[in-house]
Amino acid sequence: MPSGFRLLLTICLLCLPFAAARAQHQLQLDVARFRSTDVAVKGGTVEIYVTVAGKQLTYQRRGPKMFQAGATVTLEAVRPDGSAIYQETVTLRPPVLRDTTAAIKNPISFQKRIILPEGRYLLRGHLRDQYRAANTDIVERPLVMEFSNIKPSLSDVVLLSRPASRSSVEANNFIRNGLSLTRAPGGLYARGMDKLYFYAELYNAPTGQPLVLRYRLRAAKAAKDAATGQGAAQGAEGKPTVLAGELDLSKVPAGEYLLTLEVRNAKNQVLTTQTTTVRRNPADYAPAGAVMSR
User: Fold this and answer.
1) Which of 211, 205, 214 lies closest to 267 in space, CA to CA?
2) What distance in Å separates the CA atoms of residue 263 and residue 278, rounded to the nearest whole number?
3) pLDDT of res. 21
Protein backbone atom coordinates (compact mmCIF):
# COMPACT_ATOMS: atom_id res chain seq x y z
CA MET A 1 0.00 0.00 0.00
CA PRO A 2 1.49 3.43 -0.93
CA SER A 3 2.60 5.48 2.09
CA GLY A 4 0.44 8.45 1.05
CA PHE A 5 -2.69 6.28 0.97
CA ARG A 6 -1.81 4.75 4.37
CA LEU A 7 -1.47 8.28 5.83
CA LEU A 8 -4.85 9.31 4.38
CA LEU A 9 -6.50 6.15 5.76
CA THR A 10 -5.00 6.79 9.21
CA ILE A 11 -6.34 10.36 9.25
CA CYS A 12 -9.81 9.16 8.24
CA LEU A 13 -9.85 6.54 11.00
CA LEU A 14 -8.77 9.10 13.59
CA CYS A 15 -11.59 11.41 12.49
CA LEU A 16 -14.30 8.77 12.87
CA PRO A 17 -14.84 9.26 16.64
CA PHE A 18 -15.07 13.03 16.10
CA ALA A 19 -17.58 12.59 13.28
CA ALA A 20 -19.67 10.22 15.43
CA ALA A 21 -19.69 12.75 18.25
CA ARG A 22 -20.77 15.51 15.85
CA ALA A 23 -23.59 13.27 14.59
CA GLN A 24 -25.24 13.35 18.02
CA HIS A 25 -27.94 15.96 18.20
CA GLN A 26 -27.71 18.77 20.74
CA LEU A 27 -31.49 19.16 20.49
CA GLN A 28 -33.88 16.41 21.55
CA LEU A 29 -37.63 16.33 20.87
CA ASP A 30 -39.94 14.04 22.84
CA VAL A 31 -43.51 14.05 21.52
CA ALA A 32 -46.76 12.61 22.90
CA ARG A 33 -50.10 12.77 21.06
CA PHE A 34 -53.47 12.79 22.81
CA ARG A 35 -57.02 13.04 21.53
CA SER A 36 -58.67 16.43 21.90
CA THR A 37 -60.78 16.86 25.04
CA ASP A 38 -63.39 18.58 22.85
CA VAL A 39 -65.24 15.75 21.05
CA ALA A 40 -66.47 18.23 18.41
CA VAL A 41 -62.87 18.93 17.34
CA LYS A 42 -61.28 16.52 14.85
CA GLY A 43 -57.73 16.63 16.02
CA GLY A 44 -55.59 16.25 19.07
CA THR A 45 -53.15 17.67 21.55
CA VAL A 46 -49.41 17.41 21.00
CA GLU A 47 -47.09 17.69 23.98
CA ILE A 48 -43.56 18.64 22.91
CA TYR A 49 -40.79 18.15 25.46
CA VAL A 50 -37.56 19.84 24.34
CA THR A 51 -34.13 19.09 25.84
CA VAL A 52 -30.99 21.03 24.89
CA ALA A 53 -27.54 19.67 25.76
CA GLY A 54 -25.68 22.23 27.86
CA LYS A 55 -22.16 20.98 27.16
CA GLN A 56 -22.16 22.17 23.52
CA LEU A 57 -23.48 25.67 24.25
CA THR A 58 -21.07 28.64 24.31
CA TYR A 59 -20.63 30.27 27.72
CA GLN A 60 -19.64 33.94 27.93
CA ARG A 61 -18.27 35.89 30.88
CA ARG A 62 -21.03 37.96 32.50
CA GLY A 63 -18.93 39.22 35.43
CA PRO A 64 -16.19 38.11 37.85
CA LYS A 65 -16.39 34.31 37.98
CA MET A 66 -19.79 34.43 36.23
CA PHE A 67 -20.46 32.64 32.96
CA GLN A 68 -23.75 32.04 31.14
CA ALA A 69 -24.94 30.57 27.86
CA GLY A 70 -27.94 31.45 25.75
CA ALA A 71 -29.88 29.70 23.02
CA THR A 72 -33.12 29.93 21.10
CA VAL A 73 -35.26 27.02 19.94
CA THR A 74 -37.75 27.56 17.13
CA LEU A 75 -40.51 24.96 16.94
CA GLU A 76 -42.60 24.46 13.81
CA ALA A 77 -45.39 22.11 12.77
CA VAL A 78 -45.34 22.04 8.96
CA ARG A 79 -48.06 20.81 6.59
CA PRO A 80 -47.21 18.59 3.59
CA ASP A 81 -47.31 21.68 1.33
CA GLY A 82 -44.54 23.29 3.39
CA SER A 83 -46.67 25.88 5.20
CA ALA A 84 -46.37 26.18 8.97
CA ILE A 85 -49.53 25.65 11.02
CA TYR A 86 -47.61 26.42 14.23
CA GLN A 87 -44.40 28.32 14.92
CA GLU A 88 -42.88 29.63 18.15
CA THR A 89 -39.42 30.65 19.36
CA VAL A 90 -38.36 30.03 22.96
CA THR A 91 -35.30 31.65 24.58
CA LEU A 92 -33.27 29.53 26.98
CA ARG A 93 -30.97 30.83 29.72
CA PRO A 94 -29.11 28.07 31.62
CA PRO A 95 -28.08 28.87 35.21
CA VAL A 96 -25.03 31.11 35.73
CA LEU A 97 -21.81 29.15 36.38
CA ARG A 98 -18.76 30.17 38.40
CA ASP A 99 -16.53 28.37 35.89
CA THR A 100 -17.01 26.65 32.54
CA THR A 101 -16.24 23.08 33.55
CA ALA A 102 -18.02 20.92 30.97
CA ALA A 103 -19.12 18.40 33.59
CA ILE A 104 -21.53 20.85 35.20
CA LYS A 105 -23.10 22.24 32.04
CA ASN A 106 -26.44 20.54 32.63
CA PRO A 107 -29.09 20.11 29.93
CA ILE A 108 -32.08 22.45 30.01
CA SER A 109 -35.63 21.48 29.02
CA PHE A 110 -39.03 23.00 28.47
CA GLN A 111 -42.46 21.73 27.42
CA LYS A 112 -45.11 23.04 25.02
CA ARG A 113 -48.68 21.90 24.45
CA ILE A 114 -50.31 22.65 21.07
CA ILE A 115 -53.55 21.69 19.29
CA LEU A 116 -53.45 20.32 15.73
CA PRO A 117 -56.24 19.20 13.37
CA GLU A 118 -56.14 15.64 12.07
CA GLY A 119 -53.56 15.17 9.35
CA ARG A 120 -49.88 14.61 8.66
CA TYR A 121 -47.21 17.08 9.70
CA LEU A 122 -43.49 17.51 10.10
CA LEU A 123 -42.41 18.72 13.54
CA ARG A 124 -39.17 20.68 13.33
CA GLY A 125 -36.94 22.06 16.06
CA HIS A 126 -34.15 24.53 15.21
CA LEU A 127 -31.54 25.30 17.88
CA ARG A 128 -29.37 28.43 17.66
CA ASP A 129 -26.50 29.23 20.02
CA GLN A 130 -26.75 32.95 20.85
CA TYR A 131 -23.00 33.33 21.31
CA ARG A 132 -21.73 31.21 18.41
CA ALA A 133 -23.64 31.59 15.15
CA ALA A 134 -22.16 28.43 13.63
CA ASN A 135 -23.49 26.27 16.47
CA THR A 136 -26.94 25.20 15.25
CA ASP A 137 -28.91 21.97 15.20
CA ILE A 138 -32.10 20.93 13.40
CA VAL A 139 -34.22 17.93 14.38
CA GLU A 140 -37.29 16.80 12.42
CA ARG A 141 -39.96 14.26 13.32
CA PRO A 142 -42.97 13.08 11.29
CA LEU A 143 -46.24 13.63 13.13
CA VAL A 144 -49.50 11.81 12.29
CA MET A 145 -52.68 13.02 13.98
CA GLU A 146 -55.46 10.43 13.64
CA PHE A 147 -58.09 10.07 16.36
CA SER A 148 -61.27 9.23 14.43
CA ASN A 149 -61.05 5.51 15.26
CA ILE A 150 -64.18 4.37 17.15
CA LYS A 151 -62.49 1.25 18.52
CA PRO A 152 -60.48 1.26 21.77
CA SER A 153 -57.11 2.92 21.19
CA LEU A 154 -54.20 4.23 23.23
CA SER A 155 -52.48 7.59 23.21
CA ASP A 156 -48.72 7.76 23.03
CA VAL A 157 -47.01 6.50 26.18
CA VAL A 158 -45.35 9.17 28.35
CA LEU A 159 -42.27 7.89 30.20
CA LEU A 160 -41.89 9.47 33.64
CA SER A 161 -39.02 9.88 36.10
CA ARG A 162 -41.43 9.87 39.07
CA PRO A 163 -44.98 8.58 39.63
CA ALA A 164 -47.90 10.52 38.19
CA SER A 165 -49.40 12.35 41.18
CA ARG A 166 -52.51 14.40 41.94
CA SER A 167 -51.77 18.09 41.89
CA SER A 168 -53.62 21.10 43.25
CA VAL A 169 -51.46 23.49 41.24
CA GLU A 170 -53.24 25.53 38.57
CA ALA A 171 -53.40 23.96 35.12
CA ASN A 172 -50.16 23.99 33.13
CA ASN A 173 -48.31 21.98 30.46
CA PHE A 174 -47.17 19.38 33.00
CA ILE A 175 -50.66 18.35 34.17
CA ARG A 176 -53.09 16.01 32.40
CA ASN A 177 -56.38 14.84 33.90
CA GLY A 178 -55.35 16.33 37.23
CA LEU A 179 -52.07 14.40 37.31
CA SER A 180 -48.66 16.04 37.43
CA LEU A 181 -46.28 14.36 34.97
CA THR A 182 -42.49 14.60 35.23
CA ARG A 183 -40.93 13.34 32.01
CA ALA A 184 -37.87 11.14 31.58
CA PRO A 185 -36.26 12.96 28.61
CA GLY A 186 -35.49 10.67 25.71
CA GLY A 187 -36.86 7.71 27.65
CA LEU A 188 -33.53 7.60 29.54
CA TYR A 189 -33.36 5.90 32.93
CA ALA A 190 -29.92 6.66 34.28
CA ARG A 191 -27.95 6.57 37.53
CA GLY A 192 -30.16 6.23 40.60
CA MET A 193 -33.33 5.72 38.51
CA ASP A 194 -34.36 2.20 39.46
CA LYS A 195 -38.06 2.67 38.72
CA LEU A 196 -39.75 3.27 35.39
CA TYR A 197 -43.10 5.10 35.50
CA PHE A 198 -45.51 5.72 32.64
CA TYR A 199 -48.78 7.45 31.77
CA ALA A 200 -51.19 6.81 28.89
CA GLU A 201 -54.82 7.45 27.97
CA LEU A 202 -57.26 4.86 26.64
CA TYR A 203 -60.00 6.11 24.31
CA ASN A 204 -63.36 4.47 23.47
CA ALA A 205 -63.04 2.04 26.36
CA PRO A 206 -66.10 -0.11 27.21
CA THR A 207 -67.82 2.06 29.83
CA GLY A 208 -67.86 0.59 33.33
CA GLN A 209 -66.22 -2.68 32.30
CA PRO A 210 -63.12 -4.02 34.07
CA LEU A 211 -59.91 -3.86 32.09
CA VAL A 212 -56.51 -5.47 32.57
CA LEU A 213 -53.35 -3.57 31.69
CA ARG A 214 -50.28 -5.66 30.99
CA TYR A 215 -46.88 -4.17 30.24
CA ARG A 216 -43.47 -5.59 29.51
CA LEU A 217 -39.95 -4.41 28.81
CA ARG A 218 -37.96 -6.37 26.25
CA ALA A 219 -34.73 -5.76 24.32
CA ALA A 220 -34.84 -5.98 20.54
CA LYS A 221 -34.53 -9.56 19.29
CA ALA A 222 -34.57 -10.88 22.86
CA ALA A 223 -36.57 -14.01 23.61
CA LYS A 224 -37.47 -13.06 27.19
CA ASP A 225 -38.85 -9.99 28.91
CA ALA A 226 -36.48 -7.93 31.07
CA ALA A 227 -39.35 -6.81 33.32
CA THR A 228 -43.14 -7.20 33.42
CA GLY A 229 -46.08 -5.66 35.26
CA GLN A 230 -49.86 -5.71 35.43
CA GLY A 231 -52.61 -3.37 36.57
CA ALA A 232 -56.39 -2.98 36.56
CA ALA A 233 -58.69 -0.20 35.35
CA GLN A 234 -62.33 0.46 34.56
CA GLY A 235 -63.60 2.07 31.39
CA ALA A 236 -64.45 5.72 32.13
CA GLU A 237 -67.59 7.37 30.78
CA GLY A 238 -67.33 10.50 28.68
CA LYS A 239 -63.60 10.94 29.18
CA PRO A 240 -60.32 9.08 28.62
CA THR A 241 -59.47 6.16 30.87
CA VAL A 242 -56.20 7.01 32.60
CA LEU A 243 -53.59 4.24 32.72
CA ALA A 244 -50.46 4.46 34.84
CA GLY A 245 -47.94 1.97 36.18
CA GLU A 246 -44.36 1.28 37.11
CA LEU A 247 -41.59 -1.26 36.55
CA ASP A 248 -38.57 -2.17 38.67
CA LEU A 249 -35.38 -1.48 36.70
CA SER A 250 -32.87 -2.31 39.44
CA LYS A 251 -31.89 -5.60 37.73
CA VAL A 252 -32.29 -4.41 34.13
CA PRO A 253 -28.88 -4.06 32.42
CA ALA A 254 -27.87 -1.12 30.24
CA GLY A 255 -29.33 -1.13 26.75
CA GLU A 256 -32.27 -0.13 24.60
CA TYR A 257 -35.67 -1.72 25.16
CA LEU A 258 -39.26 -1.60 23.96
CA LEU A 259 -41.98 -0.97 26.51
CA THR A 260 -45.24 -2.54 25.31
CA LEU A 261 -48.62 -1.71 26.86
CA GLU A 262 -51.48 -4.13 26.26
CA VAL A 263 -55.12 -3.58 27.29
CA ARG A 264 -57.36 -6.65 27.66
CA ASN A 265 -61.05 -7.00 28.51
CA ALA A 266 -62.68 -9.36 31.03
CA LYS A 267 -62.60 -12.15 28.40
CA ASN A 268 -58.81 -11.76 28.12
CA GLN A 269 -59.16 -10.37 24.60
CA VAL A 270 -56.59 -7.78 23.49
CA LEU A 271 -58.34 -4.45 22.84
CA THR A 272 -55.32 -2.34 21.87
CA THR A 273 -51.55 -2.05 22.29
CA GLN A 274 -48.93 0.69 22.22
CA THR A 275 -45.12 0.70 22.36
CA THR A 276 -42.33 3.15 23.12
CA THR A 277 -38.54 3.05 23.37
CA VAL A 278 -36.74 2.98 26.72
CA ARG A 279 -33.01 3.55 27.25
CA ARG A 280 -31.28 2.19 30.34
CA ASN A 281 -27.84 3.52 31.32
CA PRO A 282 -27.03 3.23 35.05
CA ALA A 283 -23.60 4.80 34.50
CA ASP A 284 -24.93 8.09 33.13
CA TYR A 285 -26.66 11.10 34.70
CA ALA A 286 -30.13 11.98 33.46
CA PRO A 287 -31.07 15.54 32.37
CA ALA A 288 -32.77 17.68 34.99
CA GLY A 289 -36.53 18.18 34.85
CA ALA A 290 -38.09 20.75 32.55
CA VAL A 291 -38.80 24.33 33.48
CA MET A 292 -41.71 26.53 32.44
CA SER A 293 -40.66 28.23 29.20
CA ARG A 294 -40.57 31.99 28.73
Assistant:
1) 211
2) 20
3) 38
